[in-house]
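Worked example 2:
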Amino acid sequence: MPFSPHFMNRSTILLDLARWMTLASIGLAVALYGGVRPWTREIVEGLLLLNLGLFVVGLATRRRWPRVPWTLGASTLFLCASGWFMAANAERQFVAVAGVWIEQAQLLPGLPGSFDRTMTWRSLLLWTGLWGASWIVCDAAAQATWRRRIWGVFLVFGSVFVVFALWQRMAEAPSIYWEDGPKAGGTFFGTFRYHANAGAFLNAVLPFCVAMAVWAFRPGGESGWRVAGVLSSVFVVVGGLVNVSRAANLLLIVLLVGMAFGFRPSVWDRGWMVGTIVLLVAVVLLAASVGLDQTASRWETAVRQLTGGGDGRWLAWTTIVRDLLPKAGLWGSGAGTFEPVFQTREALAGAAGLEGRWDHAHCDLLQALVEWGWLGTAAWLVFFGGALGRTFALWIGARGGEGRLFAGACGFSLGGLLLHALVDFPLQIPALQLVAATVAGACYGQRIHHSKKMISHRNGDG
């Protein structure tokens, strides 16, 4: 017997609530120090799991499956199942005080298990919420209305973030939110403790701002959206130039060049070229007035490192490739266990070990190989590769200008984030993990030529 209209309306409210709360979680995670502090991570984690629960209940009451392509569904379900199995079947435990591993009895001896149940458990709680976020956004992005909302959310959050960061820089803030005590260190920018993560966030939202400006300048576009698109693009580019992360600076230039060709009109008329050049000059001058001295100093340091003593991360990558990857196997050491695994390897190296704390590999691909193994990393490649492949297919085949621009924004955003992850650790930061999951979900949610090769559309809304 079908549900009553009143009951169906309640289920729609639950789905919309889960969608809105997922999008709002991005701004909350960014505002709460990127979600890196233990208490902020717990808030983000709890909210994402709540959103997933609302989403599941809403789908159940509507008696339908989520609108999720098989690529997204299979990769995330495999990662979730294998990750939680390894957590339950842990084979070791790390004793931080002594810096040693203790063997423990497995539930199923001989099968893959995590190196530390507690660490993997904590990591998977967040990842489960993030995979749920990608499903929620994918289900929502099938509707044009929700695609515009996703678009607008990134534009608003990116603009607010960069205005705060520039205000922070001009006021010479001693730390994030002008707190007392050394709570942020000397590398903070905006609400992120590490400037490279802030740069990765700015590069992730920039394509949405630029795409909005391009879309608003179409014939018949609204003047209000033109102002919003141009101002947000200018602010984000200025923030990216002022930010001292070298990787983020380079990717900003790559993205600007890519979008200049990808979002260009069908014909490069003289007015478009002149306008682009004038806008870029204005952006550089504005960035210089805010302050580019720290950025220039960082590049001078980079030159000295290349010509002199080198960079510590090269030694870390060499250690991982030489000593850790041959032992990673198909399943890896378990999610969230990279730091103790790398730490114990460095203890064996003695005086030749690297200085400082290496809680991340500064290359998310290498860290994924250590923690998730070859099979898990392959699933991650399917997850992100499928999203980028779908975006490329949409860009080539889409007929409508709005859908094509949204697909291009998603592709540039996710592609830039993944390129940054090859030389740093943005995908280890909860706020940026959520951005990546959301953008990937938006990539998957758009239909290619009205394809019905999805898990289910039965009783779908919208």
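The mean pLDDT is 83. The first helix runs from residue 5 to 31.
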